[in-house]
Amino acid sequence: MTTREDDFITSVEDDLAEGRLTAASRTLAGLSPVDVIDVLERLGRRDRAVLYRLLPKDVALEVFEGLDPVLQGELVHALQDDEVARLFMDLDPDDRVPLLDELPAKVAHRLLRGLPQHERDMTSAVLGYPQRSIGRRMSPEYATTSPGTTVGDTLQRIRLRLDDAETIYTVPVVDHSRRLVGVVSLRDVLRASPGDTIESVMNEPFAVLATADAELAARECADRKLLALPVTDNESRLVGILTVDDALSILEEAESEDAARSGGAEPLRRPYLATPITAVVRARVVWLLALAVGASLTVQVLGVFEETLERMVVLSLFVPLLIGTGGNTGNQAATTITRALALDDVRPRDVLRVLGREVRVGLLLGTLLGALGLAVVGLLYGTDIGLVVGLTLVAVCTLAASVGGVMPIVARKLRVDPAVFSNPFITTFIDATGLIVYFLIARAVLGI
């Protein structure tokens, strides 16, 4: 965002705060829909509804479509019934479904009932698929052609669907039973002669089942660099299409969710400034309580080795260094493998290969850090203490990397989000086990 656009946004916020609605309306006219969305995401629920009503009708729908479903739901509650019905009617079926998920059942039912039969049928079809499946995110509005249709007739079909088809750049090819038999790009259609049949220019299709996981389907679309990915049922009948922009939105949501859970919090599912304080607290408190319970293991370990600490107080100086290094090593491994799982570079069957690699990585890291620890600590506190710290770093880094690499794979095998098993829990686990390793090494080396 440029400085000029940022000044516009600040001006709108100031006008709204002072009740200068006419001035705010004039300022809005100088903003693009994307910048209007930025402003709305920074406002509270009441001010957001007030500002939205100041938008011209031709801009309002585009802005509404760009908002997160949670914010759309809040706006629906604030607007009048006729405004809501008009907005809902103008949305595409795949954009209606996330909004319906955010609304009370009675409101959702009333909005669906107000749609024309054709629109209601398409929306209901998308709603019928499981949560988190690609069927819930696909568009049922698309242009198709058939193998025996000529290029000229196909172009005519495409022209008839210019206003309502989700995309025209990739056209699925279906037979008389609507089974997917190929795909053809608009470029190839335009390049061919009008009398050529589609069969002569179409390509082999790649499709996903409507019940497939949305993130995996979106990843396939992105990895294969497809403008659109056909979605089929179990009998290979075409039921929808996933466009690349929707695929990227799904991947962005997944990245945000993984990032939040890796940091020990639940995803907010809305822009930060538009999230109530209570919602932020709820997103964090459960994880903090869970981690606090896990941290009690560390206290128990310290209690068990209390006598060792009393006899060699200097050992307590290095506790933060050792458990911090172990936690960071485990987090690095977990983040790397979680990302590799998301990209399908690693699969659950690769668990032994990952374990072998991470053992070697951890051992090499531990050796480098342990050698440094031995030299520095040995110089300051004596060779025996330096040896304890050095050996502990080798052991803790090896253990942390191994556990951090394997736990996300175990989570995937158990059909649990790998991010949940990564950083917070690994840090807690390594804190406890690292201390046990540390004090056992200290007892063996120092003879206490």
Automatic annotation (TrEMBL):
UniProt entry keywords in alphabetical sequence: CBS domain, Cell membrane, Magnesium, Membrane, Metal-binding, Transmembrane, Transmembrane helix, Transport
**Where is the protein localized?**
Cell membrane; Membrane
Presence of keyword Magnesium: yes
Q: Is Transcription tagged as a keyword?
A: no
Q: Which SMART domains match?
A: CBS, MgtE_N
**Membrane-spanning residues:** 285-305, 361-381, 387-411, 423-446
User: Which Pfam families does the entry mention?
Assistant: CBS, MgtE, MgtE_N
Q: How does it sit in the membrane?
A: Multi-pass membrane protein
What SUPFAM superfamilies does its record include?
A: CBS-domain pair, MgtE membrane domain-like, MgtE N-terminal domain-like
Q: Which residues form the CBS domain?
A: 138-200, 201-257
What's this protein's function? Acts as a magnesium transporter.
- Record note on quaternary structure: Homodimer.
Q: What does the similarity note say?
A: Belongs to the SLC41A transporter family.
Can you say what this protein is called? Magnesium transporter MgtE
Which species is the source of this protein?
A: Isoptericola halotolerans
